[in-house]
Amino acid sequence: MSNEGFAPEWLALREKADADARATELLDYLRDSILNRSGVSVRDLGCGTGSMGRWLAGKLSGVRHVVLHDRDPRLLGLAEASMSALGITVETREGDLAALKADDLAGADLVTCSALLDLLTADEMNALAAACVHGGVPALFTLSVAGRVELTPAEPLDAAFQDAFNAHQRRVEGGRRLLGPDAPEAAAEAFAQLGADVRTAPSPWRLGPDQAALTAEWLRGWVGAAVEQEPELAEQAGPYLERRLSGELNAVVHHIDLLAIPRVDR
């Protein structure tokens, strides 16, 4: 339920693509409704190296305090240092997010995360939504995988790798069935059932030759996960990667951003 195990180098490589992809129009609803004041406190779940917090601080001038949550102390240290350098006060929380309750969000003006929801189970998603709504705290969850990839030029094998990757994202891990690309719909439903005002917006990565390093690293990981799920694809994976990486490849990797605002008095 975090960026645990994610190398800082990978998180740094994707940071600009993440920032470019996030749906800034959802921030307008925050500004108009709840974040039109100074001294905003943010809870960043699965914070990694702090890229989400840095992005928000650049978009919302009122961010003054951030509480960083992650299971990886190495990433927490990097995130804390980078946020402190922006003149923002920082607290860190190391551990699992599964036990997060409404009381734990006391004092927060916004709960946020990036590329996290696909790592949750349905029960964990429901519990997270309940903590936010019962705590009266808006949630901005960005870059949840949508299960669709568009590769140009197209190849017949694209669909097979996409299907296998999506199945891998929905795998059972440690007795937990992950939501994977079902996460955006599950999150929207969980918040809506609790009476929150829910808005979603597309936030696709648009990768091409100008992001060659990220495109190559993403593609290798995408194919690798697909092969892990469907080993019969292994024989085709090498030639597929060679063809893809030797030519000019453009990729649209679809994500969904979600904003949920509880309909309660704070």
Can you lay out the helices and strands and say which pair or pack?
Layout: H1 8-21, H2 25-33, E1 40-45, H3 51-59, E2 63-70, H4 73-84, E3 89-94, E4 110-114, H5 122-134, E5 139-152, H6 158-169, E6 172-173, E7 176-177, H7 183-193, E8 197-202, E9 205-207, H8 212-229, H9 234-246, E10 250-261
Parallel strand pairs: 1-2, 1-4, 2-3, 4-5
Antiparallel strand pairs: 5-10, 6-7, 8-10, 9-10
Helix pairs in contact: 5-7, 6-8, 8-9
Describe the protein.
The chain has 266 residues and is an alpha/beta fold. It has a domain at 8-146 and 174-204 and 254-261: Vaccinia Virus protein VP39 (Rossmann fold), CATH 3.40.50. It has nine helices and ten strands. It has helices at 8-21, 25-33, 51-59, 73-84, 122-134, 158-169, 183-193, 212-229, 234-246, and strands at 40-45, 63-70, 89-94, 110-114, 139-152, 172-173, 176-177, 197-202, 205-207, 250-261. The strands form two sheets. Strands 1, 2, 3, 4, 5, 8, 9 and 10 form an eight-stranded mixed β-sheet that branches. Strands 6-7 form a two-stranded antiparallel ribbon. Helix 6 (158-169) packs across helix 8 and helix 8 packs antiparallel against helix 9. The longest helix has 18 residues, at 212-229. The radius of gyration is 18 Å and the shape is globular.
